[in-house]
Amino acid sequence: MRISVIGCGYLGAVHAACMAKLGHEVVGIDVDERKISELSAARAPFYEPGLEDLLRDVQETGRLSFTTDMSAAHGSDVHFICVGTPQKKGENAADLTYVDAATVGLLPHLSPGDIVVGKSTVPVGTASRLAELVQLKEPEAHLVWNPEFLREGHAVSDTLQPDRLVYGVENGSEDHPSVAILDEVYAGSISSGTPRLVTDHPTAELVKTAANSFLATKISFINAMAELCEAAGADVTRLADAIGMDDRIGRKFLNAGIGFGGGCLPKDIRAFMARAGELGADQALTFLREVDAINMRRRSRVVELSRELCGGSLLGKRISVLGAAFKPESDDVRDSPALSIAAQLQLQGAVVTVSDPKAIDNAARRFPELHYEADVDRAVQRADAILLLTEWQQYRELDPYALSTLVTNQRILDGRNVLDAAKWRAAGWTYRGLGRP
Ligand code: UDX
Asked: pLDDT tens for residues 400-420?
């Protein structure tokens, strides 16, 4: 099929490459010229495992191109909207400027029978509003909401083999003409067993925000348990192992630590609360305020623990922060708890050096006042304390004996509870986890 993908960020660039991989002819469109020239040269403008190889692979076939010119969408049968919906400045609600602009910009290029497919995470009600715009301009075109559930760091495999496909169509019916078209787009995944659900517009929009709210709640639940474990002298990692064995609960997303961040969960739960308020259903989501509060409390807790670890004062203490990305296998620092903790420590008088295998450039753009050092051995030189805040594999594998020769004081705070406490203590370190004795 001929496909256009509007918005070539973390979602759209991966989506465009994967659609070409599935055999479609794809044009990726974005207003950012730098992004387009990188992608045109088969370079990923951000770090995502496997993306660059995939771009090279599919560009050789001639099925994938990129442009800043919206008129290139003309002639495509399916138009995916993959632009961002960030948090509005000074408000909880989602900023729909880019989704609106992408849709309006696309309208002149629609032909009868085309489908516009929204993948961005939007407040419920957006799809029906945009569907009206589409129908007004081209009565024989349709708008479908097809939320994306990919995780950064696993974006390519999550797009090629999603765990489910959700199509939100105007009448919520399997017979809607858009259903067969999308089935053709995703024929590869469907034939390999991916379940597919057809819903109405609002249900499809809510599936995404509900899923992200559930994940955020699961993380904050275990972080609340970590607070209790700390008060009671218990171990939250063993607690998570034990409750996770109940398959109604499950062990995934029960890792206590410095909390969730990134470009999705934090802003999505806030936008969801804001939207519920507009709909007069704010009471239904008041618990998400607590989920957010527990999450933000983790960051202050780590600052306090670091102060304790440094003997009661942060002033002039050399602190090495390992990890700047919001999660491993990503260079994304949007709302990264690691970076926010590093900045707090610096504000409170510590001398902070941040290291990360991939995210240093992005981090330095956001917090230029911090000191950055890519090499771990140099980053921990003469440290009074090390904070492991993003669980990259290379940090999990650090050798406590080798590191002890580099630091001034053998103190480590394991913000992701991924190190073997006994091993680090045996090597002479003062080890602190979160919610662990
Ligand atoms: C999330 C959803 O998982 C995905 O389905 C959706 O499409 C977009 O938002 P992503 O933001 O890539 O994906 O990251 P995710 O893997 O969900 O992690 C989010 C945050 O939670 C990270 O900061 C991570 O470190 C943290 N986390 C995750 C925990 O603190 N504990 C856990 O047990 C799991």
From this structure: 999 999 999 999 999 999 999
